[in-house]
Amino acid sequence: MFNESIRYLKDSDDAAMTILVGGLLIIFGFLIIPALIVQGYVIRVLRRVSDGDTDAPGFGDWTKLTLDGLKAVVITVVYALVPAVLAVVFVGGGVALADNAPALGGLVAILGGVLTLVVGLAVWYALPAALVRFAEKNTMGSAFEYESLVPILRDGEYGTGWLLALGVLVVAGVVASAVGAVPLLGWLAAVFVGFYAQVTAAYIYARGYAEADEHRLQKGSEVEDGQPAV
């Protein structure tokens, strides 16, 4: 999976143009729309890879990319609200209690911080699968169909893919930081490294999801085959 992910964008027909456009969009991401287009492109990658298509897509149908990117941002924000609310309620509440009951307030803040961290990690782990499912089904509601997502999240293929994608992003971050330290044009090269890493990680997420989903379907088929005929 790793080797294929590294070659995924590089081996595409329009690799140079796709990387150039992606990098330029990130540079102008402060204008919002370019950032949404990049997110829409990531969703397009998730959709194609989960469907078994090994050819990296190009940029095109900008309206579709923008809308998909906006939907992906909304989904991400909704998922992020869960740990954010916990942080406000428990950590904020603990700090408020500390004025009258320091020990109790400190305990509530610490427990709330731990709970927020655990839930935050869970959201971080689940979000890529939710985005792949959204890309696959093309409906925002599908990103919140937890009964369908849980078997994916429990599968070792998805877990391995998630860790591998994390490793790619971490290494790319280190490389981008080193390259960005080069005077004048270093920051520019770092942007393109970041875009390439983002696409590579998306490929890995989608492959891990697809393989986990195949396992889920196989298990479901085995259960049905084992049921007595009525």
Q: How many individual β-strands?
A: 0
- Largest sheet composition: none
Rounded radius of gyration (Å): 21 Å
Q: What is the distance, rounded to the nearest whole angstrom, between the alpha carbons of the first and last residues? A: 43 Å
Q: Provide the low-confidence segments as ranges.
A: 222-230
Order of helices and strands: HHHHHHHH
Mean pLDDT over the full residue set: 89
- Structural class from helices and strands? mainly alpha
Shape category:
globular
List the total number of helices: 8
- What percent of residues are in strands? under 5%
Helix content: over 70%
Description:
By secondary structure, the protein is mainly α. The protein contains eight helices and no strands. Helix 2 packs across helix 8 and helix 3 (33-50) crosses helix 5 (102-137). Residues 222-230 have low confidence and may be disordered.
In short, what is this structure?
This protein has 8 helices and no strands. With 230 residues, it is mainly alpha-helical.
Key features of this structure:
230 residues, single chain, 81% helix, 8 helices, mainly alpha
List the helices and strands and how they pair.
Layout (H helix, E strand, L loop, with lengths): L1 H9 L4 H13 L5 H18 L11 H36 L4 H36 L8 H9 L1 H25 L5 H41 L4
Helix pairs in contact: 1-8, 2-8, 3-4, 3-5, 3-8, 4-5, 7-8
